[in-house]
Specification:
Radius of gyration: 14 Å
CATH architecture: 2-Layer Sandwich
Strand order of the largest sheet: 1-2
Length: 62
């Protein structure tokens, strides 16, 4: 049973975009690893910009 946790910044991602992410990851796991789609779990976590850092800075400060 694959479990995939996708973390993205909270920047207005739409429900349709999330649906495409879930479908794409599920399809890839099915095609590449022969995993059953009904046993594949995907969680999308949206992180506030002030809780995400890159290159020694908070994303919110960029």
């Amino acid at each position: 049973m694959p479990f995939v946790n996708v973390k993205i910044t909270k920047t207005g991602v739409t429900k349709e975009q999330k649906r495409e992410i879930v479908e794409g990851i599920t399809d890839t796991l099915s095609r590449v690893l022969n995993k059953r789609p009904e046993a594949t779990h995907i969680v999308i976590e949206e992180i506030e910009l002030e809780n995400w850092g890159v290159s020694r800075k908070l994303v919110a400060d960029k």
